[in-house]
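Before relying on records like the one below, remember that each one covers exactly one chain. Contacts with other chains, cofactors or solvent are not represented anywhere in the record.
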Amino acid sequence: MSHIGRPGEPDKRSLRLEFLAVRNRLTADDLRETSAALAGRALELPELARAGTVAAYVSVGSEPGTLALMDALRARGVRVLLPALLPDNDLDWGVYEGEGSLARVQHGGRMALFEPAGERLGPDAVTTADAVLLPGLAVDARGMRLGRGGGSYDRVLARLERAGVRPALVVLLYDSEVVQHVPEEPHDRPVHAVVTPSGVRRFEPGT
């Protein structure tokens, strides 16, 4: 079965570069408009409407914007958890208390991230979430997600599986990033839904 493992990685790397190149051409106006539309679509999701706790993330650069969505969830009384990157690429978590509660953190030579400045709850805090919003670069017709390649969310998904919990897994993308197929590896897991500025698409296991 080795043919479905690491040999797929070069395909993933080249695909990531292609999607990032398209994102990097977006203007500040594009980002503002898509962020508002994305929040509106996501808030219509029943999985988010009934969630008490949502694990989210702060978008950076040209990623689909998440701040408007996080603020709207918080205004509904939802407990929003945000990740903090650990040295081994795993994720710790803290509670989002509004934009003023974020700290800009530089991790080596990478892009700076915005992380919760308050108390750290530990990597297992994500297992309390009713829904987990995942960053990504693309999703295919089966719900397989192309991530950035750091492996942080692979660890999150493995932790959820070990804990025996099944939160709704939702990836936030631009419309052009919903594609027919992305390469997968044995550890990859499908998401339940993708939200883009123009709408929501759900995935059924096995489709």
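The radius of gyration is 16 Å.
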